[in-house]
Design brief:
The structure is a single chain. The protein has about 280 residues and is α+β, with helices and mostly antiparallel strands. Helices cover about 40% and strands about 15% of the residues. The chain contains 8 helices and 10 strands. It has helices at about 20-40, 45-65, 75-90, 95-100, 110-120, 150-160, 165-175, 200-210; strands at about 5, 10, 130, 150, 210, 225-230, 235-245, 255, 265, 275-280. The relative contact order is 0.10. Mean pLDDT is about 80; it is low at about 1-20 and about 20-25.
């Protein structure tokens, strides 16, 4: 400790303090300058601390106004299990099963009509020739060569593909009721080789055992699987089967028939006058 008395520096207990030379004065003054500069820098701390406090307060106010969620508490065992179930979909039916709507089951009659139409369209891949020749064939289940036939053969082959043999059914009905059938050909008894291949005989069979529907010119009256009979000039008859396919403009169902160039699917429903309209599904 140094005591100043009238400009004279004396040490405590009479001990004289050391004398400072020029070098010591320089060192002293240097240390004092550093202390002054450090003091100046330390003088900036209070304002900086105040600004930091203001910024923290503003951040907290913004936190409350914006609605930022508070810190999330550590998940418990139950919440972890619930998250795992939600992510894996456990306990819930698959989305496809939830949203899927099953179509109503089709009736035996509808399934028969599906087979009938498919069998008729299949004939377009085989029969390429119109041939009305008389041919001896087997009975039952007999048929002329696959690549040829007449319009009645389209109907007979389609029904056979769906499980009904019109060769057999027409023959059995003609054998029991021969006089109910047309007598155009001078026959005295049924002929299993040709009877079912003649449109007038099919027309009579469908009238007797099928459902006769209006022979209208409205395409909406015709459904897939219906049998149509047209009348050409001079009384000639033609027949075909209605399909589930539609015309280019969507207004008419297409028909499968063989009018002279092989079996085809065409927009021909209203091409000629319709004289008969049948629906026959056997015993369904």
């Amino acid at each position: 400790m140094l005591i100043c008395d009238g400009g004279k520096v004396e040490g405590v207990h009479g001990v004289q303090p050391p004398t400072l030379d020029a070098t010591d004065h320089g060192r002293y003054n240097g240390r004092m300058g550093m202390i002054e500069r450090q003091g100046t820098r330390l003088g900036y701390l209070p304002p900086l601390l105040a600004l930091a406090a203001i910024a923290a307060a503003a951040a907290w106010l913004l936190h409350d106004r914006v609605g930022v969620a508070p810190p999330v508490e550590p998940p418990t065992e139950n919440t972890v299990k619930q998250r795992e179930e939600n992510s894996s979909g456990a306990g819930k039916p698959p989305l496809a099963e939830t949203n899927r709507t099953e179509p109503p089951p089709r009736s035996p009659q509808q399934r028969f009509i599906d087979r009938l139409g498919a069998a008729a369209i299949e004939r377009t891949r085989h029969t390429k020739v119109y041939d009305p020749s008389y041919v001896g064939i087997d009975y039952p289940g007999g048929d002329v060569p696959d690549d040829r036939g007449v319009c009645a053969d389209v109907i007979v082959r389609a029904y056979r593909g769906a499980g009904i043999d019109l060769q057999q059914r027409v023959h059995e009905d003609m054998a029991a009721h021969f006089r109910e059938y047309p007598q155009f050909w001078g026959l005295s008894r049924p002929d299993t080789n040709i009877d079912h291949r003649r449109v007038p005989n099919l027309r009579t069979f469908f009238r007797r055992h099928g459902r006769t529907l209006p022979a209208s010119s409205d395409p909406a009256d015709y459904a897939p699987g219906d049998v149509v009979v047209w009348q050409f000039t001079r009384g000639r008859l033609h027949t075909g089967l209605v399909t589930d396919r539609r015309s280019a403009d969507g207004k008419r169902p297409l028909v499968v028939h063989n009018v002279g160039a092989g079996t085809r699917v065409e927009d021909a429903l209203l091409s000629w006058p319709i004289c008969d309209h049948f629906r026959y599904t056997g015993n369904l």
